[in-house]
Every structure is written in structure tokens, then in C-alpha cells.
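Structure ticket #2291
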Amino acid sequence: MTTSTTQQVPTMWEMARTPRWIGGLVFALAVAALFALLGQWQFSRAVASGVVVERATETTVPLESVATPQSGVTEDAAGQMVSTQGVLVPDSFVVLSGRSNQGTSGYWVTAEFLTTETGATDATSPALAVAVGWAPTEEAASSAISTALVSDGVQPITGRYLATEPPSEDDFEAGEQNSASVAALLNQWPTAPASVYGGYLVSDQAVAGLDIIDSPTPSTEVTLNWLNVFYALEWAVFAGVAVFLWFRLLRDAHEREVEEAAEVN
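Resolution: structure written out below.
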């Protein structure tokens, strides 16, 4: 007489409660938690980059309090209304083409301005590039330069301090220059200053014969860093995959148990 034994196969839920699979689940949850933390970090960076930092850019402060010669323009200094005093250097006027003023294309007139805190200028005075006015045509800009009265005395000046623009490919054959690049302007001044500010000033007053340059308040419009948001979503997916992988391995192991039991029986 032959006795057959039927092999009992545990359910998938019973397998999941064994030490081996409980340990696997704990590991999967730990990995998922790590991925979730990375996703939260990426998302917080995206939100942080979209926070508007309010600055009192329209409150005029001394130039020397926000900028230093021979240094770049900091985030706090960019767009700030500033004041200083000094003298405009004769024969330092440079005309920039393609400069928009309230939506109309025209020309800027720029000049070298030797700054001073003591009321006198000398060879050690830091230089500041200043846009002193706008004209609709090159002829009008040149005419204003030829008739401009440059005071011999120290004069105050106020305006918006902006970061230098990168040099552009100017049309040298036509004698045009369109970039407010401090480095490019420096090379055209009659004498090289001892030091120069890294940014330039858009004056809120204009030389006779020119219009005041429109210099609006810096935009505070911000957007989320969508690349960081995408990375955050990726980490969330990875967290879900870690738990799903544990479940898939458990299901495959249970199916093998069922198949082996069927072969034995």
C-alpha cells in the first residue's frame, strides 16, 4: 500500500511574515526613505530658488557701501540705486548703439567718472563707467558730446548700479559698439585709471541734449527650478520602485514554491 503526501505551500502573506522577507522589507523601506529624503532635498532647492528676496533697491545708498573697485558686482549691489561724487573725464565719452529707451532703439552716451570720497580727485581715484544719457540718433548723441560742459569741480551723481555686460562682436568697420562692457570702455578712455568699479552706473540725470535713460526697478519675477523638481520626482519614483522590487521578489519566490509543490505532488 502506497501513501502519498501532499506538500503544503504557504501563502504569499505567510511567506512575507518570515524573518527573511521581513528583513528584506525593512531594507527596502530604508532605501525608499533615503530616496524620499533626497527627493525632498531636491524639491526644497527648487522652492528656495523661487523665493523672492526683497531688496530696497530704490533707496539710494552710497556706492562705496555696496561696491568695491576691482571687484565684481554682488547680488545685493546689482540694480541698487547709489550715489557718489567725482568728476567726468573730458574726452572719455563713448557712444553705444542699439540701446533701447522705453521701447525705442537709440544710442547711449557713456563716460569715465573719477570718484572720490574726500572731495578731490587724483591718480589714485577709482573710475566708474557712467551712462549719462540717451539719444534717438547717433548724430544727436555726438552733438551732445561736442557741446557737453564738463565741470572742473567735483559733482554728485546718482543712478542705478548694474553689472557689466559681456563684450559683443562690435561692428568696428562702422565704428559702432553696443555693449556696456566696462572692460571695453576702459580700453577707450584717454588714460587708464588706477582702479575701476566692476559695474556701471545709469545716471538718473542726463547731459544737456540727451534724454534720461529709463532704468526700471529690477524684476522680482521668479520661477521654480524645474530641473530640481524633475529630480525630486525621480527620487519619488525610485522610492516606490524599491518597495515594488521587494514585492516582486516575494511574488516570484511564492510562485516558485507553488510550482515545486505541484511537481512533487
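Closing remark: The longest strand covers residues 104-115.
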